[in-house]
Amino acid sequence: MAELTGLADDRALLGRTSTAERVADILRSRIAEGYFPPGTRLSEDSIGGALGVSRNTLREAFRLLTHERLLEHQLNRGVFVRILSIEDVEDIYRTRRLVQCAVVRGLGRPPYAVDGPAAAVAEGREAAAEGDWKGVSTANIHFHRELVALAGSERTDELMRSVFAELRLAFHVVDDPRALHEPYLARNRRILEALEAGEGAEAERLLAAYLDDSRRRMVEVYGRRVADAEQTDG
Question: If phi over 0 gives left and psi between -120 and 50 gives alpha, with beta otherwise, what is residue 108?
């Protein structure tokens, strides 16, 4: 499999003190990038061989990612990349709204250190100019991750890292990434401009509306894709 060839290149990232956490980091990134799409069965032998790690280490990494809801173990079948339900997608957006709006609300008095969100907006603009809509999706996630990072909380960063990784599972099912992601480039910029102007309340208002609209759009698009897949399987 082509993705396993690429995965073997990640072996150098493990170093001499490889751990299940480092293996989980590599697999999390590969899942987020779409190398292992939702529904893919992960072979212990193939992945363990590609990374050069023991079966026990790989199983522990699988356990960690299962806890993050990126993988699921199916009895007598193995470990698979999760396929999200509509309820999962809605819950992800509820969590995003609660956490992200609270972060912006709690920023305090301006000026705000927005170098991270600004870099992500520029990244998204460059990807769009190149027609790289997967790159736009990645830049969009980076923007929202950098917004969360403004809180300066490692625990919040860790929580939302898992939420954003899980969201990417839904993105990989969508068949028209441009239509899904392009409209939010301008909205990211408007949120950034509000923060740059020191208008925290306006930034929160824009963010809340953004997430509500994104949730409705994502549920509509994802629900249609899941329904089509079920009809095909049937």
Answer: left
